[in-house]
Design brief:
Distance between the termini: 25 Å
CATH architecture of the largest domain: Alpha-Beta Barrel
Order of helices and strands: HHEEHEEEHEHEEHHEHEHEHEE
Mean pLDDT: 97
Shape: elongated
Number of strands: 13
CATH topology of the largest domain: TIM Barrel
Number of domains: 2
Largest sheet: 4 strands, antiparallel
Radius of gyration: 23 Å
Structural class: alpha/beta
Number of helices: 10
Strand order of the largest sheet: 3-5-1-13
CATH superfamily of the largest domain: Aldolase class I
Helix content: 40-55%
């Protein structure tokens, strides 16, 4: 069982929810009884976070009997996690484990849905998810999008070259060809990506040597126009729409000629509902 968070991080989650013990369970005097907790998918979903949920139970003193691995597509009613232990131990982990799996499965399910829609339309485009996840939770976010079949657009500023207009404010336009050539030479194993906001920008930055043009807020029609213009000028940069790419328009961007999709939509997807059932042993 591989978790993307270490025990220290998972224990911190438990401590946030139960800093001084479970007052209700203790007051009722039921904590020592033997119990079973089963988590099930209320609806079809792409599972993520089951390993972390299982480890949370173990850290609280329970025993994991079975779980469905992250990345698995399941139907409504599928059992995701079965654990046993004392009532106290299971209640300590219950809500944190359930909520974590719900949120991560929401992200994974959205990513999987976008990719499936594109495939069903006859296209095979990668979905690259941005770094616009909730700060401090990138390991969980990356696990979730990966479980959904997507890839990371940028894991962070340290490992990617992405020139924004906000960078270009500090460079004269005439200097860009030489600057891009120097960057490509200094980091030959990296793709040089440039964000553009207009067709004119796209043509200029392609001429400057950008490998990938990140088309910010381009409509599918504008992307198609950009593709035609690049072809007419014998320019070969890859086109990646970004900003507002969702399940509803992913296929339209694919049909317009996108080489891959860039989106943060999965991070804002509704959580998937996980049902929890307690029983005596």
């Amino acid at each position: 069982m591989h978790t993307c968070l270490n025990d220290e991080a998972l224990c911190a989650m438990l401590d946030e929810d139960v800093p001084y013990g479970d007052l209700t369970t203790r007051s009722m005097g039921i904590g020592a009884q033997s119990a079973q907790m089963v988590m099930c998918a209320r609806h079809a979903m792409r599972v993520c976070g089951s390993e972390e949920a299982a480890r949370l139970v173990e850290l609280a003193g329970g025993k994991v009997m079975s779980f469905v691995a992250s990345g698995t597509q399941v139907a409504e009613g599928t059992e995701l996690l079965r654990v046993q232990g004392s009532v106290e131990s299971l209640h300590l982990a219950w809500k944190t484990a359930q909520t974590l799996m719900e949120y991560l499965s929401g992200i994974a399910s959205c990513a999987a849905g976008m990719l499936q829609a594109v495939r069903d339309a006859g296209f095979d485009l990668p979905l690259a998810c941005t770094r616009k996840n909730f700060p401090g939770n990138r390991k969980l976010a990356v696990k979730a999008i990966t479980a959904g079949g997507a890839v990371s657009h940028r894991l962070g500023l340290s490992e990617t070259l992405l020139v924004f207009p906000d960078h270009r404010v500090f460079v004269d336009n005439a200097e860009l060809p030489e600057l891009f050539a120097r960057i490509r030479k200094q980091a030959p194993e990296k793709k040089l990506v440039a964000e553009v906001g207009s067709l004119e920008d796209a043509l200029w930055l392609a001429r400057c040597g950008a490998h990938v043009l990140q088309l910010e807020r381009f409509s599918p029609a504008a992307l198609s126009e950009c593709r035609a213009a690049l072809n007419a000028h014998n320019l070969s940069a890859l086109l990646a729409p970004a900003g507002g790419v969702t399940l509803e328009n992913a296929v339209a961007y694919a049909r317009a000629g996108a080489d891959f999709l860039v989106s943060s939509a999965p991070y804002f997807a509704p959580p998937r509902d996980v049902k929890v059932i307690f029983s005596r042993l």
